[in-house]
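Figure 6 in text form: structure in, sequence out.
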């Protein structure tokens, strides 16, 4: 193990101050930064509201893509690309939902 593979997490507010971590095993993430930098409730609430908006937009996009697929099938058109786009939208939606849950968990941890 050499020095360039180590990352030091140092924070006045955390109990992990100065703890060396292998960068390839675990890199600091946004949640770490929020905890270490004292992300306030208002900012997390704004992030949660934005996540909710993204989910609502994703639901609309998925519904529209399903309507497009239905119309293509009714007219006997190829739906391969439309279905691929739907699958991509559904994956993005799952990521957005997971992000919303992560933010909600951070807010709950503040209570």
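Output sequence:
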């Amino acid at each position: 193990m050499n020095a360039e593979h180590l990352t030091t997490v140092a924070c006045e507010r955390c109990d992990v101050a100065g703890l060396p971590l292998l960068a390839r095993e675990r890199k600091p993430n946004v949640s770490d930064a929020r905890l270490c930098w004292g992300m306030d409730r208002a900012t997390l609430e704004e992030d949660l509201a934005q996540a909710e908006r993204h989910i609502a937009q994703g639901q609309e996009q998925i519904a529209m893509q399903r309507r497009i697929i239905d119309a293509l099938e009714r007219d006997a058109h190829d739906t391969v690309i439309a279905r691929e786009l739907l699958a991509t939208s559904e994956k993005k939606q799952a990521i957005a939902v997971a992000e919303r849950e992560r933010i909600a968990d951070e807010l709950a941890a503040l209570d």
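Caption detail: Residues 5 and 25 are 10 Å apart (CA to CA).
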